[in-house]
Amino acid sequence: MKITRNIVIIFAGVVSLMAVMAGGLAWSLHSLAPTSRRSVGATATSLEAINKQCRDRIGQDGFGTVTISGVVSLRNQNGRLSTDCRLQLLPGAQLRLIDSRLETGKLLISDQASSELPSSILIDRSKLSGDGFQVRLKAAGSSAIVQDSQLNFRLSLGLSLGAGDQDQRASLVVMGSKLQSDESASQGIILVSTGRGTFKNTQFLAPLGDSALLLAPKCQSNQNRGPITACGGT
Q1: Which residues of the chain have pLDDT under 70?
Q2: For residues 178-215, b (16+ Cβ closer than 10 Å) or e, as one string?
Q3: Measured distance CA(112)–CA(135) in Å, rounded
């Protein structure tokens, strides 16, 4: 369909834009790839453990690296990451943050594009805040859910799901939440899925004169508040 093809073209442009966003923050999307063998070890199972591993594994780019394997459920936890941190999801990993509160600088979450096992992220009834938040899940069929939560990052807020333009199984759901990145220096809010995108009953606060960008070939957007460009329209 022409609409789907146009969304795919827009998606490619948005991924490039996200790379520019990352570069503007002294990140890059290649920073989301594994950097060294020393990043691989026992998976962290608490915010305290994640913070410790990030501090102990800081690379030349200033980011600590933590690997996540299996199902890691962080429930009823409050914490702060004292250094910029990169979370690498191993094949099939599931990261869940439930009824928790996290403060951080720049937080990057990625998986392995070549994996045949999808990864997933759940943020439920939680509050995350800091400088920047970027999620890039490339394993086919991966998913991310943000529900009844608050995400407030002053420089950038982005979630990108999909293993290339043909991955129609990717799924991104944002509902009942508040997403904020509205300081004048912010690169804005970009949420993209190559498959399904569901955006409901959420407040978006973007920089003055800008709008949150919500894109997916199979896209639903309703009962949202704030300036948005969604589902190929406004």
Answers
A1: 1-43, 165, 232-234
A2: bbbbbeeebbbbbbbbbbbbbbeebebbbbeeebbbbb
A3: 12
User: What pLDDT score was predicted for residue 22?
Assistant: 45
Place of tokens 């943000």: 146
Per-residue pLDDT tens over the stretch 142-172: 999 999 999 999 999 999 999 876 778 999 9
Q: Which two tokens stand for residue 20?
A: 């520019």
- 123 touches 147 (CB < 8 A): yes
Global pTM value: 0.85
CA distance readout (Å), 173 to 13, 143, 201: 21, 8, 11
Chain centroid to CA 52: how far? Answer: 22
In degrees and rounded to multiples of 5, residue 53 shows phi and psi of -65, -40
